[in-house]
Amino acid sequence: MRFSIWLGTEQTWDELLGSALQAERTGWDGIWVADHFMPxxxxxxxxxxxxxxxxxxxAARVDRVRVGVLVTGNTYRHPAVLAKMAATVDHISDGRLVxxxxxxxxxxxxxxxxxxxxxxxxRLARLDEACQVIRLLHSEERSNFEGRFYRLxxxxxxxxPIQRPLPLLVGxxxxxxxxxxxxxxxxxxxxxxxxxxxxxxSEVLERHCLEIGRDPASIRRSAxxxxxxxxxxxxxxxWRSDNPVTPRIVGTASQVREVMGRxxxxxxxxxxxxxxxxxxxxxxxxxxxxxFVDEVAIHLQNRSGS
Length: 306
Fold this sequence. Notes:
The protein is of the alpha/beta class and 306 residues long. Helices cover 42% and strands 19% of the residues.
């Protein structure tokens, strides 16, 4: 099983880079950043680094781990432009990029920047076409495509990515359409969820694969939930008294190991730890990153497969 760290882009560049370099040194398998221009909700002035320029810089500075955007909002960039960006970052990283892609959703970003946010059905149709466009550009010498939303005319994409194919991760939990898109095009699929939910979602993904004649084992699966780990009984009690919307894992190191073992049992290949729940300040976050590796991840990682 792989374990990756999801670094918040509201940090300064120096803080984010320091955590990324520590992740590389201490045994993490991957580094992700989110594709958002501002916090959700009110139009906050909190600084936030742009995802793709950040991941390109990380690719040049961090030498071992996989890097990626979890996930790129398809509404923000034309997929042909994104295909070119991804091929470039794959070269910068010497073949360590994962191209994460989703339909896009955050309303206030689209409103603030005047970016069109179509209805859900159209966003998903655009995501489907975007996957086709990216696959074509990364595989064909010249690409032609006539879709409802995107068009290619004798389009090149050179240099091609180092990885052939470049891993495409589709993120989302919608069982009817999003996961069908993942079954059709993705090398990896990602979803928020605790083990029981992920087991159900994996069964849905497998059904979609079987319907289109694809081997379900050809798609890697990854999950994330906020991680709150402590040996302090009172602290755990306080965390458990909350009623959060976002999935959370709350427990001692041994309890967290049990949950991670359950993810592994149901076929989850990668667990992504968000640094948002690891404390305040770079020092506390990095201390908790090390604790997770030393007390949890090291017991479940397959180093030959990372």
